[in-house]
Amino acid sequence: MVTKEQRQRALARAKLERQEKRRAEASARRRQRNQLIGAVVAVLVVAGGGTWIATALNDDDGKDSAKPAAADSPTPTPTVNNKPKTCAEPAPGDPTKQTWPNEPAMSIDTKAQYEMVLKSTCGDITVALDAAKAPHTVNSFNFLASQKYFDHTKCHRLTTEGMNVLQCGDPTGTGSGGPGYKLPDENLTGATYPAGTIAMANGGPNTGGSQFFLCINDTQLGPNYTPFGKVTVGMDVLKKILDGGIDQELMGPGDGTPHENVVFNSVTVTKKA
After folding, report:
1. Do the Cβ atoms of 127 and 198 come closer than 8 Å?
2. Nearest to 209 by CA among 144, 268, 262
3. Distance CA 162, CA 266 (A)
C-alpha cells in the first residue's frame, strides 16, 4: 500500500521532471532561434544602422537600418590572427557623430558624374557614383561628405566566408550608427553585386542611412540593397584588407571586425567636369 509520504514524493518527482522537460524544451527553442537568426544574418550580411548587410552585412528588425536585428548587442568572439598589420595609423581626430532629422534637399545634378574618394589608412579607394540611377543615395553621400561625416570613421565589419564584403559608414564603429534619417531604396530592379560594387546596408525596405558595403569579390545577394557606384581605383586595397582577415567574430565564422585598422581619414565627393 502506498503511503501518503510516498505519494507526495512521487508527485514532487513528477513535478520536477515536468519542470526539467519544460526548461529543456525552452533551451532547444532558443538554440533553434539563434541558429535561424545566425543563418539569416549570414545571408543578409549589413547593418545604418547593422546594419547591417543588412545591417550586419546586417541583421536587422526592419525598423532601424543602423542596428543589427539578429543580435542587438553581439558579443565579439576573439580569434587567433597573428598576421602583421600593414595599414598606417589613422590621422588624429574623431567622427562628428552628427545627425539630422530629415534627408538633405536634392542638390546634385543627376545628369552629371560624381566621384567619391575614400582616403583610408590602408590606401585610397575611388568610386564612380551613379547619380542617375541612385539620386537620393548619391545626394546623401555628397551632403554627408561635405559635412565631414565619414572622416575618422572605422570600417567595422568584414566577411571572409560565403561572401567578401567590407562594411563601413558608421561613425560609432558598432554597426548601430546612422545620420538620423532614412533613404528610399533605389536601383533595385535587376540589381547584382559584382566585385567593386558599392551598395547600401539596410534594416529592411527604405531604411538606408550612412552604412554601406564594398564588394571585394562577386557577391550573391538578392536585389535588396541599393547599388550606387563602382570602385574604379583601389580594388588592391580592398583585397589587402580581405587578406588580413578578421580579429573578432561578430555573427559567426568569417564575419567580424577587420584585422587591419581600416579608418577613413577623409571622404570627399566631387562633381566631374
Report:
1. yes
2. 144
3. 30
Q: Which residue has the cell 561578430?
A: 250
228 versus 73: the higher-pLDDT residue is 228
Cell readout for 27 is 533551451
Q: Which positions ≥6 away from 178 have C-beta within 8 Å?
A: 48, 49, 64, 65, 66, 99, 170, 209, 210, 211
Write down the pTM of the prediction. 0.76
Question: Which residues are CB-contacts of 174 (< 8 A; sequence separation ≥ 6)?
Answer: 156
Reported as a single tens digit per residue, the pLDDT across 110-136 is 999 999 999 999 999 999 999 999 999
The yes or no reply on domain 45-272 and CATH 2.60.120.650 is: no
Rounded Cα distance between 214 and 156, Å, is 12
CB of 259 closer than 8 Å to CB of 156: no
Q: Residue 102 class from Cβ within 10 Å (0-12 exposed, 13-18 middle, 19+ buried)? A: exposed
Instruction: Name which of 38, 152, 30 is nearest 90 in CA terms.
Output: 152
Q: State the alpha helices, DSSP H only, in 45-170.
A: 135-146
Question: What distance in Å separates the CA atoms of residue 29 and residue 32, rounded to the nearest whole number?
Answer: 5
C-alpha cell at 204: 529592411
Measure the CA–CA gap between 159 and 167, rounded to whole angstroms. Answer: 9
Q: What percent of the chain has pLDDT over 90?
A: 67
